[in-house]
Write a structure and sequence with these properties.
Strand order of the largest sheet: 1-2-3
Helix content: 40-55%
Number of strands: 5
Mean pLDDT: 88
Order of helices and strands: HHEHEHEHHEEHHHHHH
Distance between the termini: 42 Å
Radius of gyration: 18 Å
Number of helices: 12
Oligomer: single chain
Shape: globular
């Protein structure tokens, strides 16, 4: 469970995350109103890429960053990013549901992000996405006993308690390490796995590109983030929610939906 450790650490322990909670729950703590959003789903996808459960092939050498509006160039970048589901072994229920959600959106185990973006404009696909997202959210809540005994001392009526605010500050200290060039050079990640994990933690705070800038791009996960893959996933999932038919719009439409970016061809 998210817990308190020594604050303002000034030694190499500063690079250690304050707890072993899942990326999804760390993101929820920092999300608006501490709610599970589509960003939580995207983080699960990132973690599955990091674990090799989803393979990522990218036909693009240079780093890429989206602008303030979705452009034709962004769509072409999506076309060059291919995901292939290769899940083997035991997975958490939420991870299995996230993989099934991708399969249902794409009708295939291998697909590029541009094709998935186009699928998100299909109302029937969007309706199924909303249903799959509900199941995924329920699994995350069950696995983490969210709003139950694991977090009742941190969250009350959807708001952080005084202890919750202390815990958030502790993670803020770790966040400062993730984006500090000085601290990263002083206490660098010692393995490829630790390097990727730190960048994945950065995604929990929406600073993944800042974290990557001062670390190595040496795995499929880091290359995916280097091409703004995390942001592209969020845009695609947001777009699917925007295309849910009106009569079906229930709780799902409030999963952090953002109409800042819309994919051409939607309903």
């Amino acid at each position: 469970m998210l817990g308190l450790n020594n604050k303002n650490q000034e030694n190499e322990n500063i690079k250690n995350p304050p707890s072993d909670d899942s990326y999804s729950m760390i993101q929820v703590l920092f999300a608006k109103n501490n709610e599970i959003t589509i960003n939580t789903l995207s983080l699960t996808i990132l973690d599955l890429i990091n674990k090799g459960q989803i393979k990522c092939d990218i036909d693009l050498d240079d780093s890429y960053e989206m602008g303030k509006k979705l452009s034709p160039e962004d769509m072409e970048v999506m076309k060059k990013i291919t995901l292939r589901i290769a899940n083997k072994g035991e997975l958490k229920t939420s991870e299995t549901l996230a993989i099934n959600l991708l399969k249902n959106m794409n009708k295939n185990k291998k697909f590029n992000l541009k094709a998935m973006a186009k699928q998100s404009n299909n109302t029937s696909v969007a309706n199924k996405f909303e249903k799959d997202l509900d199941e995924y959210v329920n699994a995350i809540e069950r696995e983490n006993n969210y709003d139950g005994k694991n977090y009742k001392d941190l969250l009350e009526n959807g708001k952080l308690t005084s202890k919750g605010k202390e815990v958030k500050n502790e993670w803020k200290n770790f966040q400062d390490y993730l984006k500090s060039k000085e601290l990263c050079e002083k206490y660098p990640p010692e393995t490829v796995e630790e390097n990727s994990a730190q960048i994945l933690y950065g995604a929990c705070f929406d600073i993944e590109k800042e974290a990557l800038k001062i670390r190595e791009n040496n795995t499929q996960l880091t290359d995916f983030i280097d091409k703004d893959g995390y942001k592209l996933l969020n845009i695609i999932f947001n777009n699917a929610l925007l295309n849910v038919s009106e009569k079906r719009r229930g709780n799902g439409i409030f999963y952090g939906v953002n109409d800042k970016y819309t994919i051409p061809g939607g309903a």
